UniProtKB/TrEMBL annotation:
Gene Ontology annotations for the cellular component aspect, listed alphabetically: cytosol; protein-DNA complex
Signal peptide per UniProt: none
DNA-binding positions: 123-221
PROSITE patterns, per database record: OMPR_PHOB, RESPONSE_REGULATORY
All copies of domain OmpR/PhoB-type, residue ranges: 123-221
A molecular function (GO) term: phosphorelay response regulator activity
Modified residues (4-aspartylphosphate): 51
Keywords associated with the record: Cadmium, DNA-binding, Phosphoprotein, Transcription, Transcription regulation, Two-component regulatory system
Domain Response regulatory: start-end pairs: 2-115
The protein, known as: Response regulator
Keyword DNA-binding: yes
Source organism (scientific name): Pseudoduganella umbonata
Length: 223
């Protein structure tokens, strides 16, 4: 498979390119936003790894332009770990993000996961049974009832919903929602899921968030 890395830091770009090449991928490297955009729109790539802070044209602008014409999966690399920055990247059309510094093993897992999923576009509105999530407006409802969520609760629900039917492990949830390596001694994920269930599931007969023993959680309509 052919990958495009858009990264202006020479050492970081070469590190990612070398590691992915040794893992069996064909990898091209671009060092500016315009060069990366040109390569992405004129060549055929299975995945684009895109740094946010780029010269001439930042990653936000690049992914916005990409989504006008192609649906190639995009993985953001960013040193900006503010919640709003991560949400912004996903809303603009990125499929995943990884905060610097990162372990190459984690990058490789993210790459392989996105390649298995294939091209996909982020939906503005996600509907599962009577649950509706308006992503741009950050609005959640079940039936006619509006549900108020915190920022973290929304990120958790959005993650579960956009991958509905897929069992998500606690380490994956922790890395996506909290940018942390999961420690088996912490119950942060379980506590967050319980709080989300109290709002999303407990008042309703049909339950949508399910626990898969020893594996994780899945959001889906059953029965």
């Amino acid at each position: 498979m052919r990958l495009l890395v858009i990264e202006d830091e020479q050492k970081a770009g070469e590190y990612v390119q070398r590691g992915l090449t040794e893992s069996g991928f064909v990898v091209d490297l671009a060092r500016t936003g315009p060069d990366g955009l040109h390569a992405a729109t004129t060549g055929h790539y299975d995945l684009i790894i895109l740094d946010v802070m780029l010269p001439d044209m930042d990653g936000w602008q690049v992914v916005t332009e990409l989504r006008r014409t192609i649906e190639t999966p995009v993985l953001f690399l960013t040193a900006r770990d503010a919640l709003n920055d991560r949400i912004k990247g996903l809303e603009l059309g990125a499929d995943d993000y990884l905060v610097k510094p990162f372990a190459f093993a984690e990058l490789l897992i993210r790459v392989r996961t996105l390649l298995r999923r294939g091209p996909m576009r982020e939906l503005d509105v996600i509907r599962i049974a009577d649950l509706e999530i308006d992503v741009p407006k950050r609005r959640v409802s079940r039936g006619s009832m509006r549900i108020d969520l915190t920022a973290k609760e929304f990120m958790l629900l959005h993650l579960l919903a956009k991958r509905s039917g897929e069992v998500l492990s606690r380490p994956l949830i922790a890395s996506q929602v909290w940018d942390m390596n999961f420690d088996s001694d912490t119950n942060v994920v379980d506590v967050a899921v319980r709080r989300l269930r109290a709002k999303i599931d407990d008042p309703y007969e049909q339950k949508l968030i399910h626990t898969i023993r020893s594996m994780g959680y899945v959001l889906e309509a059953r029965g």
